[in-house]
TrEMBL record:
Extent of motif 'HIGH' region: 9-17
Keyword Chaperone: no
SUPFAM superfamilies in alphabetical order: Nucleotidylyl transferase
Alphabetical GO biological process terms: tryptophanyl-tRNA aminoacylation
Single GO MF descriptor: tryptophan-tRNA ligase activity
Domain of life of the native organism: Bacteria
Assembly, per entry: Homodimer.
Protein name: Tryptophan--tRNA ligase
Amino acid sequence: MRILTGVQPSGKLHLGNYFSAIRKILEYQHKEELFLFVANLHALTTFSSKKELEENTMSAALDLLALGVDPEKSIFWMQSDIPEVTELTWYLSQVITVSKLELAHSFKDKVAKGFSPGAGLFTYPILMAADILLFSADRVPVGKDQKQHLEFARDIAERFNAQFGDLLVIPEPDIDEHTATVPGVDGAKMSKSYKNTIDLFASEKEIKKSVMSIVSDSKGIEEPKDPDDSIIFQIHSLFLDETGKQTLRDRFRKGGVGYGDLKKSLLEAILDRFAPYRKKREELSADLGYVQSSLKTGRDKARSVAFGKIKEIRAAIGIYSSDF
Ligand code: ADP
Ligand code: TRP
């Protein structure tokens, strides 16, 4: 089965991104055929500067390689290295109507926040559909927030097939409806835009600062504490199996341990879990040659799949090409 997903390079990864999305993607690598790319063209819809785009793009590639993407096992590339994707976007934009695109929540939300949208933001779902359909993906793991975009991709594929013949694979969404929203240090959804994140690759000092700033109630050391009402507990649970969770629950309920110590235990869990990845990322940032050659290997593999498919698509539509 072919699994495909894209990660938009939008800054620093945090625990919410890792536990909801990245961890699951990485597991697929050992079981299925994984196609994974950095969606740097999608990032243009929130462009602020060339410098930021360049930094975020390289940072996303580094993050994924450090977390365990193996360019030998999966196909890992940079979206902009495959020009057939933007070509397919144009073909697909003929089969979806403006009124349908106007229903996109992500578009409507940004407009409601006062953002003056470019046409690129409006057609964002078509580019995403092209990413998926060009590579004939069977399943697409994404967060709940991307559910509607996946529905658009399926709809576009069905319309295209109805008009031009059964060429495109209808992708299945792979969305964990039950994945809990990871809370930030203030208890709201962990999100870059709320500045309440615990970042995976920040310095130890910064991670410590974030953990120590987690909001708690004012119960004293001796008092029993309610784990189910605690952000510290909710975040720490992500690192634990059922037995571990029970032990931690008991520690909260018994009393005699202050929030300061509970935060210290959480800090240890975070640093322990991510230590090997953090080390790998440091090594990789000192050797960008490896990152570049990985992306080149991925580009070559992805491009040969893309090229085969786009030729079929051009022929089905009746697009002239001087290549026979
Ligand atoms: P942010 O809200 O920080 O900008 P993104 O929108 O870049 O995060 O999210 C990338 C992915 O991580 C999406 O699949 C999204 O569903 C997931 N994600 C982000 N924050 C959380 C969270 N707090 N809990 C669960 N999943 C999250
Ligand atoms: N829009 C996705 C996100 O923000 C990223 C993405 C781009 C993607 N193209 C894709 C995800 C294709 C899955 C398949 O998370």
